């Protein structure tokens, strides 16, 4: 079953933006309580911290919302056997639903995002679910990428995951290069893409890094409780 939002609490003001709390169902794991932004209209960047990272007011709220592709990735994480020796990185995590699922199941997972508030929201959602601390790092690629070495992703991982991260054509291959910098030689990459139309560039850039692609359709029909979804599950592997 795809993620379901249940028991929405009334919104609360917090430092200039409003939030809400929902109980989210992911098949295979207990419900997760998630604090998110109230809607896309929220914005709070008084010191231009997000703007300096290339995040405009139009895109500021996107990190703090739950997205269908993120739910699909979380569902797959709920099914993956846990290996204590495997290191996992979620890039562009937003509210880090997949990382929270993996963390709850005992996986060694690090969440990363470039938004200044992503780490704060992750800490609160860990608290809401009575979960212990989880690794979080600043993860950024592209022209606005910073060199904050003390808090940036610096390790290498066996599995890198991401949902709805192919939101631009990326002809320079910044994302594929970033992934390549943070994976072991024998590694796997999962990307859930809601058919944004930028896959072909990413395929070529990943192939240039030595990754082979396995692709499958995600075509979910609507029901009374679940919205329809169309996208692709992209699995890249390198031996």
Task: Report on this structure.
This protein has 239 residues and is of the alpha/beta class. It has one domain (4-238): Vaccinia Virus protein VP39 (Rossmann fold, 3-Layer(aba) Sandwich). The chain contains six helices and eleven strands. The strands form two sheets. The protein has a seven-stranded mixed sheet, with helices on both faces. Helix 2 packs parallel to helix 3 (97-104). It is globular and about 45 Å long. The model is unreliable at 1-11 (pLDDT under 50).
Indicate the topology.
Blueprint: E1 4-6, E2 12-14, E3 17-25, E4 32-37, H1 49-52, H2 68-79, E5 87-90, H3 97-104, E6 108-113, H4 118-128, E7 135-138, E8 157-163, H5 174-181, E9 183-193, H6 199-208, E10 212-220, E11 229-238
Parallel strand pairs: 5-6, 5-8, 6-7, 8-9
Antiparallel strand pairs: 1-3, 2-3, 3-4, 9-11, 10-11
Helix pairs in contact: 2-3
């Amino acid at each position: 079953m795809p993620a379901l939002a249940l028991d929405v609490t009334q919104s609360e003001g917090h430092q200039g933006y409003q939030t809400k709390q929902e109980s989210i169902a992911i098949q295979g794991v207990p419900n997760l309580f998630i604090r998110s932004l109230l809607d896309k209209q929220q914005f709070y960047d008084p010191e231009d911290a997000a703007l300096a990272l290339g995040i405009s007011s139009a895109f500021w709220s996107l990190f703090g919302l739950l997205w269908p592709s993120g739910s699909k990735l979380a569902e797959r994480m709920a099914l993956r056997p846990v290996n204590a020796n495997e290191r996992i990185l979620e890039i562009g995590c937003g509210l880090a639903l997949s990382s929270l699922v993996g963390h709850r199941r005992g996986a060694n997972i690090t969440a990363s995002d470039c938004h200044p508030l992503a780490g704060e929201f992750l800490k609160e959602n860990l608290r809401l679910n009575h979960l212990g601390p989880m690794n979080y790092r600043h993860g950024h690629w592209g022209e606005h990428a910073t060199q904050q070495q003390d808090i940036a992703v610096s390790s290498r991982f066996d599995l890198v995951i991401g949902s709805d991260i192919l939101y631009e054509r990326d002809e320079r291959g910044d994302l594929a290069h970033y992934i390549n910098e943070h994976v072991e030689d024998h590694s796997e990459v999962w990307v859930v893409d809601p058919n944004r139309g930028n896959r072909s560039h990413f395929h070529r850039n990943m192939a240039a890094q030595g990754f082979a692609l396995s692709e499958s359709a995600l075509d979910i029909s609507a029901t009374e409780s679940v919205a329809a979804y169309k996208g692709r599950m992209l699995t890249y592997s390198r031996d």
